TrEMBL record:
<protein>
    <submittedName>
        <fullName>Protein asteroid</fullName>
    </submittedName>
</protein>
<dbReference type="InterPro" id="IPR026832">
    <property type="entry name" value="Asteroid"/>
</dbReference>
<dbReference type="InterPro" id="IPR029060">
    <property type="entry name" value="PIN-like_dom_sf"/>
</dbReference>
<feature type="compositionally biased region" description="Acidic residues">
    <location>
        <begin position="372"/>
        <end position="395"/>
    </location>
</feature>
<comment type="similarity">
    <text>Belongs to the asteroid family.</text>
</comment>
<feature type="compositionally biased region" description="Basic and acidic residues">
    <location>
        <begin position="396"/>
        <end position="408"/>
    </location>
</feature>
<feature type="compositionally biased region" description="Acidic residues">
    <location>
        <begin position="409"/>
        <end position="420"/>
    </location>
</feature>
<feature type="region of interest" description="Disordered">
    <location>
        <begin position="372"/>
        <end position="420"/>
    </location>
</feature>
Length: 846
């Protein structure tokens, strides 16, 4: 949700509110969506303009959890679910902002754009690390806080909401992801007992502004020499800062009951900050005139000072008296909801982890004496505030007292009834929760079922075209139909007052064509699903139904029979390729060649040799291997020895040979392709050469994979979900497309240049393309052939003209040489010339 300005306020006063902390040997509750976005932002940088480098992101996530494991930290990851209806207004504003950024995309800009499969790749990496993970029904904030209180452990996130939650909170920005080692001392102080040094506090403020968290992610390398240390027991830890709500409350400054109102007054996703304009103008006076502080920072300081002299009831009454009647109920409901979350002990995550993971909670720490007495020894903000803040004390205290007296009549002294914590999971059927909790379903399923809405976040795409997800709308419509045609629990259509039956429909929120705006479309169920939907035993034929009705020219029966020839992890991916080739107007066979090459490289090389994307670092690590192997192959070529596939491997099917690709092939192929993993240098000078038209076809393909995988997940995975980190790299795809579009014979170029060092990889590439060739629409095949023929003819004509000019020039040169020789032979010898002024001229006679 976020409390506006509070993160910057805390960071600027880090020595007051944050304590140094050594993170090790403990449980740790992690905000999964927050961590995923921050890791991607730090890892990819400008490469997010090409649609997503999932391979780099996946490795960063795995490395992050490996670092936690080295410090004996047991993480628990919670992912966000759907949106609550009260947040839809904020969602629309953010969607417009993202549309504006994408419309003016520049590959050199520092703005990070999150790709479509970001969260799915993150969950794949988390599961591969063996970390417990669960998707909540709505936003995970309350569930994170409840689980952290049960386990008495910190929450790792970068959300200002946790500054007002009753939990131990580690801001992600303070975490140094580098394993440190320390010797255990007999009489050591508690690990968060000392204060933050001034220099550390300044460093914290800089990191908050830079918004970097994993710039120096390091773990202890295997085989590396350990630093010399004194004999004794040691432990690994991560350096960070920890926050407790008592640090903000202080001794007698602010009670915990006032925190929800404090957060609401600052503004959040559920209530506009402008709603309190009258209150700040009349009830609290001006927020100071200091030029050193921004308006929101002054508002936070003034609000804290005002709340010290008020009780929770009196403060709420004064705020309500200055609000419009239409806004009062919203504020009261929000404050009550915040109080529920503040003291909520209902924790579905605890029950889920306990039921689905062995030894789920190895670390459950009792509350220590230091934590129990922390409230009594909390910082006194009156003593800690700097002299600048003391000079900026509120000028209108007398005005506040008068306003309080004038509105005291509106306050009610009746005690409020105890609030019951609402269990929001009761709004969903149990079969749906059983699929949602293990993160089998994406978060949009909650929106479809609960709100009947789909929020389409745009990708990097061409704005004059329709949004990239429009191609996959038939699949999304089929998913919506399944959700409302569950066997035995079908949704019945409503009848309006005039007796007209209203169709079952959902609202599709997406970008408008050409303009920066959001459009809302009603998408009714046109026809029921082709087969019954039983959640406990779903029918896999629903996947075939999509192709039967929406891709009639794809020869569905033959298509699903030929799927058996492909590896299991590629079958759904190639179904998406066939669907995309038939329904997209913007893709051609060059897009397909690029996808197949990217798949072969990522799926083979990254699992065989260490992944390294920097050219200099690659040659530094593997330079000797490259030099030796290149020398061996050059010698064989000079002797006429042709390298081929071993006879034993020829007996295996082509896909099964890929596990036998030698490391030497991978090193040499990676050396050739490594420059293509990076943005072209020309974009730094002429970024207008960057083509969103090319990327639009790839964005459509990502949308098809996303929606098809969603349907596959709802059907309990009859096909294996595609691992996008082994299939898709946006920068590599764009560069390969740009490289191949100038080649009249793509297969020849791949064989003799890109994959010339690995016959096994080239065979696999040909196998995949030949598989797709049977399902390529005839109209696409013809268009591509004609285009390639035109290019080839132009090049042939150019070579013929060059050869003719060269031959003419050679003939002219030969004629001139002959004439010169003849003239020299017939010429009469001339008398020698003697220069009397040159004393060396006589030497010529000798």
């Amino acid at each position: 949700m976020g409390v506006r300005g509070l993160t910057s306020y805390i960071a600027a006063r880090a020595e007051i509110y944050l304590k140094p902390f050594e993170l090790h040997s403990t449980a740790l509750v992690i905000d999964g969506d927050n961590l995923a976005c921050n890791l991607y932002k730090d890892v990819t940088g400008c490469y997010s303009a090409f649609g997503g480098d999932y391979d780099d992101f996946y490795r960063a996530v795995v490395q992050f959890f490996q670092v936690l494991d080295e410090c004996n930290i047991r993480p628990y990851v919670l992912m966000d679910g759907g949106y609550e209806e009260r947040k839809l207004r904020t969602v629309g504003k953010r969607l417009r902002g993202k549309i504006s950024v994408i419309k003016r995309i520049n590959p050199n800009a520092s703005i990070t754009l999150f790709p479509l499969h970001l969260k799915e790749v993150f969950v794949d990496a988390v599961k591969d690390c063996g970390v417990p993970v669960m998707r909540c029904v709505f936003e995970a904030d309350d569930e994170l806080a409840a689980l952290a209180r049960k386990l008495n452990c910190p929450v790792l996130s970068y959300d200002s909401d946790f500054y007002i939650h009753n939990v131990k909170y580690i801001p992600l920005i303070t975490l140094t992801v580098k394993v440190l080692t320390k010797q255990v001392k007999a009489h050591s102080k508690p690990k968060d007992s000392r204060d933050l040094r001034r220099a550390q506090a300044k460093h914290m403020e800089k990191r908050a502004k830079a918004n970097k968290i994993v710039g120096g992610m390091q773990s202890s390398a295997p085989g590396a020499a350990a630093p010399t240390a004194k004999p004794g027991k040691t432990y690994n830890y991560l350096d960070c800062c920890i926050y407790r709500v008592e640090h903000l409350c202080g001794r007698g400054t602010l009670s915990a009951e006032k925190l929800p109102l404090f957060a609401a007054l600052l503004g959040n996703d559920y209530i506009a900050r402008s709603a309190f304009r009258n209150f700040f103008a009349a009830g609290m006076g001006k927020a100071g005139r200091s030029k050193k502080l921004k308006q929101q920072q002054r508002r936070i300081r003034v609000t804290l000072q005002w709340l010290r002299g008020e009780t929770a009831e009196s403060a709420l009454g004064k705020v309500l008296s200055r609000l419009k009647k239409s806004q009062r109920d919203s504020l009261v409901a929000q404050v009550h909801a915040a109080i529920e979350g503040y003291s909520n002990e209902l924790c579905h995550a605890y029950d889920f982890f306990e039921a689905h993971y062995e030894n789920a909670f190895p670390y459950i720490e009792p509350v220590s004496e230091a934590e129990e007495s922390d409230a009594e020894e909390a910082l006194d903000l009156d003593e800690e505030l700097s002299e600048v803040e003391e000079e900026e004390q509120l000028q209108g205290e007398e005005h506040n007292e008068a306003a309080a007296k004038s509105h005291s009549e509106d306050e009610e002294e009746e005690p409020e009834p105890e609030l019951e914590v609402e269990d929001k999971t009761l709004m969903f059927p149990q079969w749906f929760l059983d699929k949602l909790y293990p993160v089998h379903l994406s978060r949009f399923f909650v929106d479809l079922l609960h709100l009947r809405k789909y929020i389409n976040n745009p990708q990097i795409e061409h704005f004059p075209h329709h949004d990239s997800n429009e191609l996959a709308l038939p699949i999304l419509n089929y998913v919506f139909a399944l959700l409302h045609h569950v066997e035995g629990a079908e949704t019945k259509p409503r009848v309006n007052g005039e007796g007209v039956v209203q169709p079952i429909e959902y609202t599709y929120m997406t970008r408008a064509v050409r303009v920066t705006n959001v459009r809302y479309y009603k998408m009714p169920i046109e026809e029921p699903p082709a087969y019954k939907f039983v959640p406990a035993a779903p029918d896999a034929r629903h996947l075939r139904a999509i192709f039967d009705s929406k891709v009639p020219h794809a020869q569905t029966e033959q298509l699903f029979e030929r799927l058996e020839c492909l590896p299991e992890d590629l079958r759904l991916y190639f179904l998406a390729i066939v669907y995309w080739l038939h329904r997209s107007e913007h893709c051609d066979l060059l897009h397909l060649h690029a996808l197949l090459l990217c798949l072969v490289v990522l799926r083979t090389i990254d699992v065989t040799i260490p992944a390294e994307r920097e050219v200099k670092a690659f040659h530094r690590r593997f330079g000797k291997i490259l030099k030796q192997e290149r020398a061996v192959r050059n010698k064989e070529a000079a002797e006429g020895i042709k390298r081929g596939v071993k006879p034993a491997l020829l007996e295996l099917p082509v896909p099964e040979r890929m596990s036998h690709v030698p490391k030497s092939d991978c090193y040499l192929v990676q050396e050739r392709l490594l420059p293509h993993f990076h943005m072209q240098e020309i974009f730094k000078k002429k970024f207008d050469l960057y083509s969103t038209t090319v990327l639009h076809a790839f964005a459509e393909f990502q949308a098809v994979v996303y929606q098809l995988n969603g349907l596959n997940s709802l059907l309990d995975h009859p096909l294996a979900s595609p691992r996008m980190n082994q299939l898709y790299c946006g920068a590599l795809l764009y560069n390969l497309y740009d490289l191949l579009r100038h080649r009249p014979d793509v297969r020849y170029h791949v064989q003799h240049y890109l994959l010339s060092d690995s016959q096994l990889m080239f065979d696999f590439y040909c196998f995949l393309f030949d598989w797709c060739a049977d399902f390529i629409p005839s109209w696409k095949q013809t268009q591509v052939d004609q285009a390639a023929l035109r290019v080839q003819q132009k090049k042939r004509y150019k070579k013929e003209r060059q050869a003719a000019r060269k031959a003419a020039a050679t003939a002219t040169a030969a004629t001139d040489a002959t004439e010169t020789v003849t003239a020299a032979a017939n010429a009469e010898p001339e008398d020698d010339f003697y220069d009397l002024n040159n004393k060396f001229c006589a030497l010529k006679v000798c």
